[in-house]
Amino acid sequence: MQFKLTEERQMLQDGLRRYLADSTDHEKIAAATDGATGLDHALWDGLAEMGLPGAMFTEDQGGFGGEGFDIMTVAEELGRAGLPTPLIDSALLSGTVLAETRPELTQDLVAGKIVGFAHAEPGARYDLAHVATRAEKTAEGWTLTGNKAIVQFALAADGFVVSARTSGATDAKEGISLFLVPHEHVTLRDYPLNGGGRAAEMTLDATLPEDALLGEAGAAYALIETAHARAIAGQCAEALGLMETIKDLTVDYLRQRRQFGQPIGKFQALQHRMADVLIEIEQARSAVINLCGNLDTPERDLHVSAAKNLIGRVARQVVEESIQMHGGIGMTMEYALGHFAKRLSMVDHRFGDADTHLERFIHLSQSAA
Amino acid sequence: MNLGYTEEQKAFRDEVRAFLNDNLPKRLSDKVAGGKRLTKADYEEWHAILNARGWLGVNWPTQYGGTGWDAVQRHIFEEETTAAHAPRIVPFGVAMLGPVLMAFGSDAQKAHYLPRILNGEDWWCQGYSEPGAGSDLANVQTTAVRDGDDYIVNGQKTWTTLGQHADWIFCLVRTSKEGKRQEGISFLLIDMKTPGIEVRPIVLIDGEPEVNEVWFKDVRVPAANLVGEENKGWTYAKYLLTHERTNIAGVGFARAGLASLKRIAGSQSHNGKPLIQNPFFAAKVAQVEIDLMAMATTNLRTIAAAASGQAPGAESSMLKVKGTVIRQQINALAKQAVGPYAAPFVSELLDEGTNVDPVGPAEAMPATQAYFNNRKLSIYGGSNEVQRAIISKAILEL
Predict the structure, then answer these.
(1) Which entry of A117, A206, B252, B332 is 20 to 30 Å from B300 by CA?
(2) Shortest CA gap A159–chain B (Å)
(3) What φ, ψ does residue A199 adopt, rounded to 5°?
(4) B392: chain A residues, CB-CB within 8 Å
């Protein structure tokens, strides 16, 4: 039992923290969000060179990590910097699928190539089994028709892992298949995101060759669930990093801002609220550790939902308390806090919110009992 | 990062389990599990069993007859004994006074008092709080005035837990009114049989006389009973409080409480189905379980840091707040779960071997009384508001 990072992970963490602190800030991130793809491509290439996607893959897959605590180490630093990247979509979602079905392609992901993940659909909300997009087998290969929702960094992606139904009802776990779809086969309606970066609604009306199918037809649900478990680990660790930065900003502000002739941090009403925020951030760190330490155990899904529920609740508290304790300046887009707070606020709007995962946790623990 | 125990730690856990299996009397574990009233003799019996194995001085070094265990071993022992429904070790002598004597007592004091704590000759109680000194402990007003080879003690202590059983009390007394309040406090050991001491039990909202008021009227105490130096008692008191805060998270108690809550909610019915299947109730139970899973890891992180030599700082305050809030939430849900039968209070039901039939489900009254009793958790050992002040001071550095 010990909670220290290995030497390699410590070096990666230190290197990433320095590099990100030197390379980006909330103004550059906002500028990238207003840019063509939502991504600062030079920065992403630099991160790829440092081994950021590489840490998401095992040595067999061409990387140098791949464990839960590798995900935690990297994603927490991205969160600290408040930097939107395609790490979750490309390396953790598509990466998990491709490592299983097309291992020869992971080298490109390690090098920084972006493969988007187009699974969620309008109306699916957080139901992973809801796939209305259809894939029909034709003489030449496959025809995909349907719509995908909020595909992150779609304009930065060279291609996509896309889910489509080859059989079964719209909400059935059976009958879902995955396809590798080149960028030119999709139509995108692109927009900026509240938490930074860009995404797109995707329309599919594509004819694809036979080998576009990834893995076995109709049997992709378990792999999609595994990919989401890893993505949620990354997302929760990123949320933790965001919380740490928001905490630092707020503590500094409580020390510096003077009202009624003294620093506002002297007021007990604010001290106690800040103490509660700190306690909850430690809870969040423990939940992330529990999840990352159980990504490859039979307890995985229980910890996925426990962490996602707890992070969702704590994120809301950290967002709302930090804005409140900053007062007016916390409301502006001119100051850093608002950017971090908005990004943290969006964590509960992807991969299932706190209530969704509470329900799932109950279901999992009652079926285990 | 590694969330599991080492092979050595697992072997130790198995050793503790086997010991409990062979030596914890079923009579005692039944009483603890059933929420029955524990007598002085029950505690003494359990202490003697542990002492025979050399496991009573859990937080003591081997040179004083303790276990010499590290923080992780102490945690495993706590986890296993709680899960087995063993009575708790009465903390006042073992966990609190022992370490203070080892650090600050004279050789004669150590030689006399430490063995008597382990062999059960002396039951200690804690004389800290006073009517005017609760969270503001430095405000103690009980005086000790030097008179030849004695001190003459006058004043009043309160909230003295299990003081009705005690042979001795360790007290914070005022020996000087000069300078800062903290600099006029001394740490004094007082024999409860000394003339002039009066003990009055206070019945708490759970119906039990768990705490007492203790009055001192011209009580003559040998000056040899002073620990360390006169007017340095505040330093020793703070040292003791850091020991009081070990195992402050109460993870074992919370886990036992959660298991009991789930049992109760599984047996109570709500609209024809087990209460635990009611989505509103299930959501509350699940949320506190998720909080507990995270808090258990926060606790392990602190223990691992302590085992590698880091002194606990504001972390123990964080654990105190979160740990007590979680336990209180579990208690509140168990009380909610028993429904209307939270209302009847039949004190005799808490006695061992009672022939009085329970009113309603047997678990209803213990669950309710535990709820009332554990309101204390966020009040004692430095109220949760005091802990928040410590946390914010440590990080805000204002």
Answers:
(1) B332
(2) 35
(3) -145, 180
(4) 265, 271-272, 274-275
